Amino acid sequence: MKKYTIGILFNESLTQVVMIYKNRPDWQKDNFNFPGGHIENGETSIVCLIREFEEECAIKTTIDTWKYIGKITNNKNYYVDVFTAIHNPKEHGFVKTNTDEVVIWIDCNNIPENIVTNVSWLLPFAKDWWNQGNVENLSFGTFNYNNIENCENCNGEGYTNFYDQGEPDLDSKCTVCNGTGKK
Questions:
Q1: Does residue 109 sit within a domain?
Q2: Which pLDDT does position 136 carry in this prediction?
Q3: For site-directed labelling of 88, which of 44, 134, 156, 164 has its Cα 20 to 30 A away?
Q4: What tens digit of pLDDT does each residue of 109-165 get?
Q5: Would residue 107 count as lying in a domain?
Q6: What does the alpha-carbon distance between residue 14 and residue 75 come to, in Å, rounded to a whole number?
Q7: What stretches of the chain adopt beta strand conformation (E)?
């Protein structure tokens, strides 16, 4: 199973979020996503996230910085652990681009259209987590992406017809090609 982690890092007023303009992998290319990455062998999700934020955003965070808010999985071949944090420049340093993928602060009310699909619901979800009182150790649970069938447009690399609380979403688009057949 492929294992990933992402971090949703807000400014103190929850009006801006750090995003990365992706050059790779192909299905994310030319889209914004939250920083994160592949969990290496022997690495925990949180250690991976700390490493990825240092590599991609040039900031130093700790285990105490991040709050776990959920897991995205299709129960077959991948999962993504999702964390959120509030940026403290005095503790973490200033966010800056540290690789060939540009990292920027984006206004939460003006998110670009070219985003990885999950950003559209993960951002308000994480913001709500903070707004509901910063309850320690609260997780909203696991988001299961199940598919009725593989996408025929992109040779089965993506999934369509996600289930939402047990009911199929027949209007869903492929996770890879968004129904276009182009990756």
A1: yes
A2: 54
A3: 44
A4: 999 999 998 899 899 989 988 888 655 544 454 554 443 344 555 544 444 434 333
A5: yes
A6: 32
A7: 2-10, 16-21, 32-33, 36-38, 67-73, 78-86, 103-107, 142-144, 149-150, 159-160, 163-164, 167-168
